[in-house]
Specification:
Radius of gyration: 28 Å
CATH class of one domain: Alpha Beta
Structural class: alpha/beta
CATH topology of one domain: Leucine-rich repeat, LRR (right-handed beta-alpha superhelix)
Distance between the termini: 51 Å
Strand content: 15-25%
Helix content: 10-25%
């Protein structure tokens, strides 16, 4: 609240005058708390008050995406940029940090570039936001009274009808957000065709509308009337997979800053006159798999900061024309991603056109490409500021270029490269790497080309010094790679070689055991992990493990060593032939137990009664066990009746 006020007098005056005065006028603890928070709000700079109040449009407990809220603030004119050399997006990000420091926002999610990407709002702070935004912002609730003249309205968390959306008595609406915040199955109750509703919204609120969000709304055709929204700055049509094209009338939106079309899978083309969108800063088209080219005028959008997909086809001359459009887009920022989808031949020189400021690059092939040409690309390895790199579906690639020069690389993903046999010709360890994903690499044998020459002793095996998250899926031949004792965020081993894990666990350290900081682990389809091998694992080393999933493993019993993981809060046992899980009675902090497709498991241990923190039990496709756990009549019911949430059934929901 007074984070930036250093004067002791100001603090004392505030404490004795304003807080005590506030307490005198409020009796309940809730009212006292809210009145204190209201005082905090009153001391906010005016530019932050609008931004905070606007967040009341999101549901309680919702995780808010930082870039989304900044773009919405910009659309409403809340972001005031008084400094030259700074973008409005940078100023908006400073607003987010400021509100975090003052505790109006909390629980920030920070990515590998050390930027805040998401945050939450405490439920009391959300009540405060709704209070100060009353009459201006409305998060629709069908059971509550609604103001007749709000400026901003969202329908993301409740069922609603066409009459609800169009039921306001005035046309000066600035925000209409109909998005499904959960991004799951929509709970929207539609009385009419969504395209008709879209057109009616435009005609009713065309005078003042700045932000319109219809993400995942089932739109098939964008009406021509979209061009009538003269002041519109933010338009989200993402996840409307039936949209094939946009009307050219959309190019009348000369104030539009953000156009979100992500995951419009069937979108085949962008408007031919896109150059007329002179204010456009963010064009999000990732996941638009049917796009075959970008319109000619894309290079004239000199304010563009986000361009998430470049499409290259079979014609190299057209590809060069496509990439030449990037030359004028000097504002494309390293905070955003450019994804290059390559259908056929790839020329190394194409990478020269990728703006030097880009810090996240994804290359994806589609078709029988000549992928070997990729790896004469010094332009890639010379991009020393690259932080994230993804390579996918390069069908003929058997090795990667030397990536050692990518000293800032923190995230590397290699996916669906069916001929890749090794990652590196020499001892490449990527010292800054924090997250590594190796997926669907059926012939990958090892990290190094000459695996047979690598006879490291157990105590002198190369390792990733900073790696925090490792995902290895469908790499059945993988036998050697640097060890990973420092993992913290997560480890997924799915249908892959077991030796790298064994080598990692065998390392000795005077400071802490390997994987002692690991919080989440999934082990799936490892044939070597039978009861004997599980008994050799030092489970006590997992001193920080919170989540464990054991799936499709040749285990007959739950490893007794799990008793030593005193931090475990969630245990999933899937598709195993276990006949007992007796050791769970020692997992005193266990909160959730999930058992699926374990037909040989016939009863639960008596010790489950003593797990006082266990709040959720899910059992699916375990016929005998389900029968024994039936409410009041099952033989095991008394063991589990203290658990608040119990789900018994089949995976298909029956």
């Amino acid at each position: 609240m007074l984070y930036f006020d250093n004067s002791e007098k100001e603090w004392r005056d505030f404490c004795y005058d304003e807080i005590e005065k506030s307490f005198k006028h409020n009796s309940s603890d809730y009212d006292k708390a809210l009145s204190c928070l209201k005082l905090c709000y009153d001391h906010l700079p005016s530019r932050l008050k609008h931004c905070f109040a606007y967040c009341s449009l999101f549901p309680k407990y919702h995780e808010i995406d930082v870039q989304t809220i900044i773009k919405l603030w910009m659309a409403q004119g809340f972001v005031i940029n008084e400094e030259t050399g700074k973008s409005a997006e940078d100023v908006g990000y400073e607003y987010v940090l400021n509100l975090l420091r003052r505790s109006f926002f909390q629980e920030p999610t920070i990515d590998v570039t050390e930027h805040v990407v998401k945050f939450k709002i405490h439920h009391l702070m959300h009540d405060l936001a709704a209070l100060v935004a009353e009459g201006l912002c409305l998060s629709f609730n069908p059971n509550a009274n609604k103001p007749s003249r709000p400026f901003h309205v969202s329908f993301g968390s409740s069922n609603f009808s066409e009459s609800d959306v169009l039921g306001f008595t005035w046309s000066r609406m600035r925000s209409v957000l109909l998005q499904n915040h959960s991004r799951g199955k929509s709970g929207v109750r539609r009385d009419n065709n969504t395209n008709t509703l879209f057109d009616k919204i435009i005609k009713m609120y065309d005078y003042n509308l700045r932000a319109l969000d219809m993400c995942g709304f089932g739109i098939k055709i964008v009406p021509n009337s979209i061009g009538d929204l003269d002041l519109l700055k933010y338009l989200d049509l993402s996840e409307n997979e039936d949209i094939i094209r946009l009307p050219n009338s959309i190019t009348k939106l000369v104030n539009l800053q953000t156009l979100r079309l992500s995951s419009c899978f069937n979108l085949k083309q962008l408007p031919r006159d896109i150059r007329k969108l002179v204010s456009l800063r963010h064009l999000e088209i990732d996941g638009c798999h049917s796009l075959t080219s970008l319109p000619q005028g894309i290079g004239q959008l000199t304010n563009l900061q986000t361009l998430s997909l470049i499409v290259l086809g079979k014609d190299s001359s057209k590809n060069e024309a496509q990439l030449s459009k990037l030359k004028n887009l000097s504002n494309l920022s390293g905070k955003f991603q450019i994804k290059i989808l390559i259908h056929e031949n790839f020329e190394p020189g194409y990478l020269n056109a990728v703006p030097s400021g880009i810090r996240t690059l994804s290359l994806e092939w589609d078709g029988d490409d000549k992928g070997l040409l990729l790896f004469d690309m010094s332009t890639l390895v010379s991009r020393r500021n690259l932080v994230k790199l993804s390579l996918k579906r390069c069908a003929h690639c058997s090795y990667l270029p030397p990536l050692d020069e990518l000293v800032c690389l923190k995230v590397l993903t290699i996916d669906e490269m069916i001929k890749l046999e090794h990652i590196s010709n020499d001892e490449m360890y990527l010292p800054s790497l924090q997250e590594l994903s190796l997926m669907e690499l059926p012939v990958l044998k090892g990290w190094w080309k000459n695996n047979g020459d690598k006879n490291y002793s157990l105590n002198h095996c190369p390792s990733f010094p900073c790696l925090s998250k490792l995902v290895i899926e469908d790499c059945p031949k993988l036998d050697s790679m640097p060890i990973f004792p420092t993992l913290e965020k997560g480890l997924v081993l799915d249908t892959t070689g077991w030796k790298p894990f064994q080598l990692t666990m065998s390392q000795s350290s005077t400071l802490s055991p390997p994987l002692s900081k690991l919080k989440n682990m999934c082990i799936v389809g490892i044939k070597e992990l039978d009861d004997s091998e599980a008994g050799r694992i030092n489970w006590a080393a997992f001193q920080s493990l919170r989540f464990l999933r054991l799936d499709y493993l040749p285990l007959k019993t739950l490893p007794s060593g799990l008793r030593d993981i005193i931090t475990l809060e969630e245990l999933h046992i899937w598709r195993c032939d276990m006949n007992n899980i007796n050791c769970i009675d020692s997992l005193e902090f266990l909160k959730k137990l999930e058992i699926k497709v374990c037909p040989n498991l016939e009863s639960l241990p008596q010790g489950i009664r003593g797990l006082k923190y266990l709040t959720t039990l899910e059992i699916e496709d375990c016929p005998t066990l389900i029968r024994r756990c039936e409410k009041k009549i099952g033989a095991d019911w008394e063991k589990i009746e203290h658990i608040p949430k119990i789900r018994l059934g089949r995976i298909d929901g029956k």
